Amino acid sequence: MAAIAGASELLEEDNVPPAQKRRFLSNIRTESKRIQSLVDRMLTLCALEHRETIERREIVDMNMVLADVLRRSGQEVLTREICIVKILAMACECPGDAFLITQAVMNLFQNALEFSPRGAADTGVTLKRSGETVVVEIRDQGPGIPEFARNKIFDRFFSIQRPDTRKKSTGLGLNFVREIVLLHGGSIDVKNNPDFGVRAVLRLPAA
Questions:
Q1: Which residues touch 44 (CB under 8 Å, ≥6 apart)?
Q2: Helices and strands in the chain: count of H runs, count of E runs
Q3: Taking 70 as the threshold, does the pLDDT of residue 52 lie above it?
Q4: Above 80 in pLDDT, residue 51?
Q5: pTM beyond cutoff 0.70
Q6: Is 174 in contact with 112 (CB distance < 8 Å)?
């Protein structure tokens, strides 16, 4: 809001060069999108927190979910020259809401991309079935979760700076993932790998 207000005030001046006007307008658009994203996520979280059951329950093919997530992230993967290692298992299906499950996996994968360095050679996505549970594991090659943040990563509005941009997210992503997973009777675990990077493990009841 402060960025939008500041840019708006500067645009009211008569002697603002065209190049600066374009930059200020770009700032307004960027910050407006951030506000819209924040509001949308807050509304979705509020709706999830008040839901006790899944309204649109169906059999969700987790291979299709991962294929969709990877397709939607393809441009960013190419731009940042990140190599994705996939280990997929057939017949991995979950009962639930396909849209919400996809959003949860997408959020975890986006985090892995944002924290992996450019040119990372082993950002991994693994899908497997373990007994009556479907397990999705996403690991990155980033700096890992700092000690002070390990007990806060699921807290609302808590965020860690991205290594490349030094920017923070809205701090709602992992909170959003947890609400979706709990609604589906599953679990989510995010912790540092023994060597480097972070591993996120999402578990859902199998169909």
A1: 176
A2: 6, 7
A3: no
A4: no
A5: yes
A6: no
